[in-house]
Amino acid sequence: MKYYAVIDTNVIVSSFLSKGSIPNQIVDLALHGSIVPLLSDEILKEYIDVLSRNKFDIDSHDLETFLTNLIESALFLDRTISEEEFIDSTDIVFYEIALTGKKEKETYLITGNKKHFPVKSFVVSPREMLEIIESDQKSN
């Protein structure tokens, strides 16, 4: 089964900083497994800007490989405008791309900061996303 998901930048950063972590498992599923990442040019730009920060000390070759694989795996979508209020205005694009995805397929927004988003069943933590996948695999 394929799952469509917008992955918040904090999950991507956590994946780089903690190999074998739940966020790392999510990113691995997005690159090589059952999660189809949903992107926009704005999201991709944020990934690049944040992951390129010196404080994360991410090897440029690793970053380039990740971005290449991500782009090859992803579907690029346009935003569906939302009237929701956000704590951090940079989070809006993630939510709006998820709304676009939801028009066609069941779509999730995977974030480590659920409190930054409206309370919706499709806004899930990395752990919750893994639980959804594992539950579906057991029932099939």
What labels describe this entry?
6 helices, 5-stranded parallel β-sheet, 5 strands, globular, alpha/beta, about 140 residues, Rossmann fold
Radius of gyration: 14 Å
Let me know the CATH homologous superfamily.
5'-nuclease
The proportion of residues forming helix, as a percent range, comes to 40-55%
Order of helices and strands: EHHEHHEHEEH
Name the CATH architecture: 3-Layer(aba) Sandwich
Number of structurally distinct domains: 1
Number of strands: 5
CATH topology-level name: Rossmann fold
Biggest pleated sheet: 5 strands, parallel
Strand order of the largest sheet: 3-2-1-4-5
Taking the alpha carbons of the first and last residues, their distance comes to 10 Å
Q: What is the residue-mean pLDDT, rounded to a whole number?
A: 95
CATH class categorisation: Alpha Beta
Strand content: 5-15%
